[in-house]
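Entry:
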Amino acid sequence: MRLARYHLDGRERLGAVLDDTVVPTPWPDFETLFALADPLAAVRSFTPDPADAVIPDRLLPPLARHAQVIGTGGNYADHAAEAARVGMEVVDPIFIPYLAGAVIGPDDNIVIPHPDTKTDYEVEFSVVIGRTASRLTLENAMDHVFGYTVVNDISAREVMERVKFQIMLLKSPDTFMPVGPHVVTVDEIPDPYRLGIATYLNGEVRQKSNTGAMTWRIPELLVKITHYCTLRPGDVVTTGTPGGVGYFRDPPEFLHPGDTIVAEVEGVGRLSNDLVAGWSDG
């Protein structure tokens, strides 16, 4: 099932997606759903009635409130290779926490903060946690996955150029983490390593790969994270981006006001956002 958090008539709700509509679920939000003993079983027992379908005013980021979003860097060989060309060697996945203010939803605007911001894109197939996860093993890690979503990990590359380890200002400017458009439950994706993954800038392909190309697979990532940190229902973990990001192109290509960037994962979703200027020329 596809689940969307949406806004309609001044209220936020959680709905099951049917084409361009949603059917309200018995749970008003992800927090209520994830508080159940078995959220996946509850979702499977719900049959959306098309007669109840509504057209949302807008879709919201499909996240529980207070959800942690953790990014993974260096998990596709071609992206690691293009980073190595500028001296950024990756020997283990790099995990990055994001600030809540960075999170936006589908069709929300990405606001470029300054004229000199080198705004980059990174499509990421992402995991939504369904059960509290600590000290997971390779054998039980997938038991804690509720579903999947799409993240576009926008970066301010000029920050990285100035100060290599200034990760927060690189990755968490306001609006720099689009998430969505939906959460697809894990049973809808039989093989998470056979999905096309791509970005499109103004309709032109910029990244194109397959999730099977990731170096460390989902259980390995979750084991590494939960060796130190507890993940809770609703938390999101990205699985890295393939090669083709703007910074490592020759010459580099960045996002500008007026652009539209689309991050897409086959079977999971297509996440579109426009770029706007965060400054006034006046």
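The mean pLDDT is 94.
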